[in-house]
Give the backbone structure.
Amino acid sequence: NGLGGAPAFGGAPSFGGSPSVGGSGSGGFNATGGNGGGSAGGTSANGGNGGGSFLDASADASRTPGPCGEGSYAGTLDGPYTTGNSTSEFVARVAFTITATGAISGTLTGTSNPTGHATLSGKMNCSTNEASIAIMNGKYTAGMGATFTYTGTMSGVYVPETASFPGGTWTITEPDSSSGGRGSWSAQFQ
């Protein structure tokens, strides 16, 4: 039961203690899925409707980011997540948009447990290309229907030459708990 891999998001609650992120199970947030597959130039990340790879910025060479990286981005977030005495891999899909003034809004979505989700909200400094994003209203249901909440942050630097965020970092914590994790994320212009 938790956000992690094996132990998994969506596994059974831990017995003999409080339910927690990480318990037993398989999988974890999974960054693949969607309907279809197919050639580059699809409309969503990693095999989503229409197909295509979210890492293929050349799919439509006429599309380029606007001022301050303006446009839509998709990618993945992963890293170790600790709950109690157990650590597992946490993986999720991130999708967000950046406005011409640098405002960022989007979502974080787990795919191995469709109840896992959070809102992304932040700002990119258009002079330095540094992004600071809050992970807000995070929630998932695990085990026997127990709901867990989380918040966190993501930071990264936009690289205009590749229209991407290649090496960002994230941190997530659960309120009133020592559960949480940190790791890396990346996203590519769509």
